[in-house]
Amino acid sequence: MKTLRFQNVLTPQGMGAAELQVDDKGLITAVEAVSEGPWDGWLALPGIVNAHSHSFQRVMCGYAEASVGEKSFWGWRELMYRIAQNITPRDQYVIARRAFSEMLTAGFTSVAEFHYLHHQPDGARGTEMAQAVIDAAADIGIRLRMLPVFYQRGGFGHPPSDMQARFIHESVDDFLGLVQRLGIAVAGIAPHSVRAVEPALLPKLVAGARELIGKNAVIHIHVAEQPAEVEAAQQATGHTPVELLAEHCELDRYWSFVHATHVNDSDMRSMIETGVNVVLCPLTEANLGDGLFPLQEFMSAGGRVAIGTDCNARIDAIGELRLMEYGQRLARQSRAVLADKDGLGALLWAHAARAGAGVLAMKAGRVEPGTYADLVILNDTAPLSGLSPMRAMDALVTGGDVRNIADVYVGGKRVEPGDDRNDEFVTVMQRLCA
User: Is 23 a catalytic residue?
Assistant: First the structure.
């Protein structure tokens, strides 16, 4: 048993000084109010789950910003495909180590890896690429949940392209074989999108996954990220992507729609009524020019919104929350869009932490008995210095950065984020992207 004491702790009941009892499995067994130290830190927050990551894309940072070619998501995707062709298992390990280390530094204590770079560069099948991700997470100390991606085709009525070959499984059974081989690292599955998976196959895919993983297996899927995707779905089927999913699947709280940028009012009602979650990646959605999800409407109706880092061009939990709010302010020309009467920062952080754990069915995201002691500890340096804890949370989201993060705990153990393979990462990056 381990004891941790903090001057301020953000719990579901509010903010206050507390002592946490943590067992040998890293689970909190008790949270008790205290009035004096010694203290292990100033302000403890529940760690945020990074609910959507493609770790290999971290290597692209700095290589996709020139004004050349198709200046849209689709042009960026072609560059990503070209880089992905040559990534080896060792490359994947080195890149993932860098990404996961930066995630811990940035306030993420867990990560859901939306993993679709399955096969080796020569086409060989196996688990080596996924295992490289698993090994990197274990070495860095971040809590990992794998979401293997089922990728079947290149689009509505189109076979996969040569550059998509590393992502493809020819059948549901072939894909489920991979899920079975990966074992306990897998929290659920990720049909890539309705453009990349025949919707009629989804019931068999979901049933097979839940037989292997359990009834709590989660299902994550890219939905309506781009207008072209919505238009293609409507032209091919007469339905939006959300309508296609609702027609073929029993949607519930175990489903998460990633991005959902271009859903319409009918889609929104369906999502709220069925209880599906949304995973937003504001920094990536801005980087790719995707657009803005109708966030305020969804949250006001009780919708749960997790955050992810997606392409990992910038890994920054605070920055993701800031852009969640600021994007809505710009769209509405209004302030404090997502805030309540008590402020903005604590509300946004707590919601993202709780929702991130929820979309992966994890015992995390709250500081309370029965959850993992995954914690982010803040210092009281500028711009937080001199402020009460609640006002400091507002300052963190509107003006803070990673320098305000003093410590990170995963399962009650303090971790030291850092990547000792910088030279190897630089070599990999230059070879793949030059």
Answer: no
pTM of the full structure: 0.97
- 315/402 same-domain check: no
For 50, phi then psi, to 5°, come to -80, 105
Q: Please tell me whether residues 70 and 8 are part of one structural domain.
A: no
Residue 259 annotated among the catalytic residues of the structure: yes
If asked whether residues 287 and 372 sit together in one domain, one would say no
Same domain, 373 and 353: no
Say which CATH number the domain at 330 has.
3.20.20.140
Cα–Cα distances in Å, from 320 out to 139, 154, 200, 302? 25, 30, 35, 20
Among candidate residues 310, 316, 374, 394, the one labeled active-site is: 310
User: Which residue, among 382, 360, 383, has the nearest Cα to 371 in the 3D structure?
Assistant: 360
Which sign, positive or negative, has the C-alpha torsion 377, 380, 383, 387?
A: positive
Is residue 133 located within the same domain as residue 72? yes
Domain check: are 254 and 154 in the same one? yes
What does the pLDDT look like over 282-341, one tens digit per residue?
A: 999 999 999 999 999 999 999 999 999 999 999 999 999 999 999 999 999 999 999 999
| Catalytic one of 52, 222, 259, 351 | 259
Residues 46/370, Cβ–Cβ less than 8 Å: no
